[in-house]
Request: fold
Amino acid sequence: MLTLLAIGRAKKRDKPYKLADGGGLHLLVEPSGSKLWRFRYQFDRKEKMISFGSFPEISIAAARAKRESARKLLAEGTDPSQQKKLDKIAAETAANNTFGLIAEEHLDNLRKAGRAEATIIKARWFLRDLASPLTKRPIAEITPAEILIIVKRIEASGRRETAKKLRSTIGRVFRHAVATLRAPTDPTYALKDALLPPVVTHRPAITLEAELGAFLLSLDEYQGWATVRAALQFLILTMTRPGETRLMRRGEIVWQTSTWKIPAERMKMRVPHDVPLSKQALVVLRSIWDASEGNEYVFPSIRSPKKPLSENAMNSALRRMGYAKEEVCAHGFRTSASTILNERHFNPEVIEVALAHQDEDEVRRAYNRAKYWPERINLLQDWADLLDQFRILGAQKVVNIGR
Reply:
């Protein structure tokens, strides 16, 4: 058996020569001085040889371990040289099937499926930034523990909802890998109950009728930009989301039927939504319609008529009116409508459809949308009439406070 001393004394010669270690293993000393581990064996009645690497990168102990592994393969009827080629192919395949590459495929599938740009941007942030430690890892080798470390670090920073969504997004990449035969399982499934539940923070809203009336009076007298005032009034009357209102296009309004047709790409649930417009909503719309003539958006930005109101425009107006962010926000007026209408015993299913809340049952969802259109017309008009009544209550409250 070879020793370090014997290998150290082996000098280069004009021709290659061997230093035997036994069991088919030897060290080939080249004229250049390099020393290569070789293993000679017989398979299928043929003499073969396989290389284990060079010394000292591969130590004596490591070379002997490789020899024993090769002899074990032979005992099992496997050619070590063929197995080495298969292992190399597997390693190359794994290197080409990294989490990062498959994550990019997933993002590309989202684009091809027509998902909203905001959805794709958020998924890209999750996968490229938050999950970056996984980017170069072969996806089939990633363990639940690796993912848990990443999501727990985010959870520890107080972003529980982000941690939950990150786990879910990583899981979608793994399910794509499983479906394309590049990963055996989805390791995020084992982490389903490993994260703390998100802390639900309800959007601040005015839910008392007199207080809502007082707010509406203040809004009617708002001295800021008229387009922002109109946008807030229209938002409240239609029970829509701020993004849906501020991005409204002129071509979406059907005056003949008093309908606002919101396309699927602008809806949270990616389903088109029609909004019946009350008499009061039409009055608000007509008051600012001419101001946007020749442009795309009904509620254009103050800086450029070719751009919509900014995301913060309506909330900024609320702050200038004296309402703190803990009291009310633009999105909170949906809560105002839902709370008050339910307390007044309006049909809760009609309210849900008017708010564009998605029914989990696809058949029932389509049925409800068709069935409740007349009811929704009445609901939105009743809501607008109630808001006028609340203004009277609000005025009375102001008078009583003055006394």
Q: What stands out?
A: Residues 209-402 form a domain with the hpI Integrase; Chain A fold (CATH 1.10.443.10). The radius of gyration is 35 Å. The chain has three domains: 4-94, 99-191, 209-402.
